[in-house]
């Protein structure tokens, strides 16, 4: 708890933290400029893990998960911020490969995946993403921006609600490109839910 991890490097997993075990907990930690092949800042292997109130800035993964690579069931990632993280593979901020995961109340700003599958989040198994905000930068002299592959779900039985200025503008499938207009320094909210078919 209350740790800072700055300028760390791992050739394999977790540039700053490699967690291998069940029932783990990390809170109020800061991860800046860390690098690894999988999970630029954190690589988490284990069930029932919990990451809370952490910040991830300028982390990089050569493979998946620019900030976090998660492989465990019943994991929770809550109230974290992700800024300027990137992956050469999938999941610019987060790569998730565990069942029943929950990602809530997190903020995402300017994260990127080189392979364009999950510019922010790549989600492989079951779980929920809710109450998260995605800040989108728009070019000068326009109030419209198109977002490509914000969230990529490997399993395609999810729907996504897109909100702009607090109003739902689209209920759609996932892995879509979406255009937001009338932007004036606002945050965009994305909610997902599992469809039972």
Automatic annotation (TrEMBL):
It is found in: Cell envelope; Cell outer membrane; Secreted. Keywords: Cell outer membrane, Membrane, Secreted, Signal. GO terms for cellular component: extracellular region. It holds the Pfam family Chlam_PMP. The keyword Nucleotidyltransferase does not apply. Its main location: other. Signal peptide: none annotated. The keyword 4Fe-4S does not apply. This is Chlamydia polymorphic membrane protein.
